[in-house]
């Protein structure tokens, strides 16, 4: 009886903004704005044969207590600009960007991604996200208008409409003509007409069909709606479940949803975000990890984080002292604006009770509690230990691979590329060379067939 073939691991790299994942105070840390930092990071990922580089999105500076939150994101360049520039200095690495479906329009986003796919020769990917945050929306004409319950409705139609635009160029002859600069000979090429609840548009899409046909589609929602949205149309889903038990549960739940949309198990990749700390030995790595967490969570950061739950000013409390004896303010969170983490605490009173019990049981200060409850190191150990852990989780169907987030930018990925990747290659679970030029090749996802009726120009 033959054994089950080994799954091939997918690896990607996330270039984070300045936040409490990065240790930006470390002397080894570089700029999060200078293009050289993005180039170093991308070339390291490509040297290691990673599938793609991922950029998140920040549409407004976060605020806390009515002031700019200077301990976290202090600025972020435009996603498309950075990815387009990286396309010129890389050859195979996928280029993935988060673009919001709430504050943008299908035509402009489709045009930008189709252009990026052409510039990169088939390496573009779009992480489709939603927002109901009126605080962020104030920067846009749609500020505060979209009810929370409608965000996925708009996102679904947004993606459907964008796909119609991508697919509106469907003739190889027309694409060849466009590549040589010849004007359209097929008046129907690029024609589209969409009538729906959120979008009522028609015209001609002015970017010919790109190498991948459509960019690879990513999705990051964890709610039931988010999982269903991913199963219906995404090529990959980001996950926050990096442990065996939680990872297998999430993996099985999302994969089982594919059948109702006529999709197979392999047509959706599940990729949790993961941090890592490497050392010469496991003991050395764990000692380093402890120090990294203390650098990531300063006393000031711990107080600010606690305010997300308490929804009140806690600046008078000692981070090395006990938790506040007052209860959180319930209702709308008004102290921390633009923070996704605030939505994680849907029952702040229950969270406060749990944290008090934990702090009392382990005699933890505020800072120690925040470190304990926000532990970020997914993989800690020697290169051999980390390689074995990653392989075990993928083979156990807890993930299809991982999106790595180093705590030092831009050089923090180097040690992983130099020590862990060769061990995964020796195990026969990670590529030694790219097998194709496009991101779809890296992920093992085919170019979608174009099946559309002609649209009258």
TrEMBL record:
What's the short name of a Pfam family annotated to this entry?
A: Bac_luciferase
Which residues of this UniProt protein bind FMN? 98, 152, 223
**SUPFAM superfamilies recorded for this chain?**
Bacterial luciferase-like
**Which parts of the sequence belong to the Luciferase-like domain?**
25-396
Name the InterPro entries for this protein: Diverse_substr_monoxygenases, Luciferase-like_dom, Luciferase-like_sf, NTA_MOA
Q: Which UniProt keywords apply?
A: Flavoprotein, FMN, Monooxygenase, Oxidoreductase
Protein's UniProt keywords contain Oxidoreductase: yes
Q: Which family does it belong to?
A: Belongs to the NtaA/SnaA/DszA monooxygenase family.
PANTHER family, per this entry?
Answer: ALKANESULFONATE MONOOXYGENASE-RELATED, C2H2 FINGER DOMAIN TRANSCRIPTION FACTOR (EUROFUNG)-RELATED
Task: Return the protein name.
Answer: Nitrilotriacetate monooxygenase component A
